[in-house]
Amino acid sequence: MSALLIAEHNNKEVKPFTLNAITAASQIDQDLHVLVIGCKADDVVKSISQTANVKKVIYIDNEIYENYLAENFTPVIVKQSENYSHIICSANTFGKNLMPRVAALLDSSQVSDVIKVISSDTFLRPIYAGNAFATVKSTDQKKCITIRPTSFDPASTSGGLAEIIKADSAEATSLTKFVKREEVKSDRPELGTARIVISGGRGMQSGENFKLITAVADKLNAAIGASRAAVDAGYITNDHQVGQTGKVVVPDLYIAVGISGAIQHLAGMKESKIIVAINKDGEAPIFSVADYGLEADLFEALPKFLEELNKLNTIQK
Amino acid sequence: MKILVAVKRVIDYNVQIRVKEDGTGVVTDNVKMSTNPPDDNAVEEAVRIKEAGKAKEIVAVTVGEDKAQETVRKALAVGADKGIHVKVDEIIEPLAVSKILHKIVEKEKPDLVFMGKQAIDDDCNQTGQMLAALLNWPQATFASKIDVKDKKLEVTREVDEGLETIEVNIPAIVTCDLRLNEPRYASLPNIMKAKKKPIEQINVSDLGVDTKQRIKQIKVEEPPKRKAGIKVANVEELVQKLKNEAKVI
Questions:
Q1: Each residue of A133-167: pLDDT tens digit?
Q2: How many CB pairs under 8 A join A and B?
Q3: What pTM was computed for the model?
Q4: Are B164 and A182 inside 8 Å of each other by CB?
Q5: pLDDT digit string, tens, across residues B47-63
Q6: Are A25 and A52 in contact (CB under 8 A)?
Q7: Tell me, what's the ipTM?
Q8: Which residue of A141, A152, B85, B93 has the smallest Cβ count within 10 Å?
Q9: How many structural domains comprise chain A?
Q10: To the nearest whole angstrom, how far is the Cα of B179 from the nearest Cα of chain A?
């Protein structure tokens, strides 16, 4: 049997986490088909058909799918699932919202947040906010799986030559109505996919002081993150939150400034390749995960850091 | 309006998790247990809606061993009217929990079901969505704001792109984000009063629900430990290390 991956997109572009999920899905089953449910999403379909490892694209086009409501997506996914052993999606808010609704109707016990594919029925997943890893084996015939995107490399968007077929839509729901989406627009790289992330914590002391973080982020072309304490204190909006209840990030370089390193924050960043901690409390737990720790007053260290960076002319974009 | 709130007993979020040496799970003996944090937000929101005169009754339900009743008792102390404890001793998966809750919804006939968006033990993030599917009700997941309107809820959801607002018909399922509200503490008099509120006990075997485990837990292990690195003396050294040693800038 084959695997069916549900693509996330905004009808114009494929969302990057779908590419990571494609990599994981192709490790589960090489005969990977991608289901694109959307409204005038022809560009998305074309782009996925060219993505490596994708063997077939199934396209369902109807205006009722413009705003990707789970109540509307579920009936068509259930219908399409007939010929597949695995139904797969990324474990971000899109997939987390959608997949359990599908799984329940298929009477399948979902495996959430897979970080490693061991075999087609056995997976590694974090529990307790990444403080333990569980190896689990699904015994359901039809398996519903969500993939933690940051644990897999994105599939290449070229080299694929998948067949495209169209399929029928289902009836629209009257249960739920989309009202609006307030997207946070920014010229910066997205927090979830940025190569460098610099985050501030309670030690920043105010929202105004985040300009020190912003200046360094501008220089490094980095995304800006924050601890839950900084968000709760109102220094910065919650879409910047890194941690168990925020985003999980795995950049090449993570710089934690004025962040003590609560369990909840570490859960969101401790898989980063290189971690830098700047904190005046030498005993702060963040130092126990940092590759490079600088025990210093951030209000002196950050301007100095920017000054030193300015001396280098080799910042990679 | 009647609101059913589902609460789960989990290891307290401040406890450092320890993995059992035999790889069968995590240590729970003599470990502080609490209500799953976003479930507290779910209870709080239900109580606020009742206080605003928009709901008449709040029922708190939990599924688990005898001690899980503590979480229902806590919900009663902050304002729920009655409790239900579905007794299950084995580990059960979200799919089974959603089937149990489905039975409770058929029995209690609530207009709304609230629960936390995710339990901080198994981190599955499934039960609310699954229950919505089984009931064919709308789902408003990861809610950070709820407005009760006539026969509808307007819910703001925390999504990756920012915020999304949807309108769902009542009856509906809402799964709550930690940002929904600030849960109150129970006062001592209310804790005393809660002891007199009824908790109905139901044995899971009386519900006729298949709770068999579909997922075998093969082993639980500690994540690879990250070694602490070095402390640098100053910013200059830090920048040199990042450039020449780590080669990330």
A1: 999 999 999 999 999 998 899 999 999 999 999 99
A2: 247
A3: 0.91
A4: yes
A5: 999 999 999 999 999 99
A6: no
A7: 0.94
A8: A141
A9: 2
A10: 9
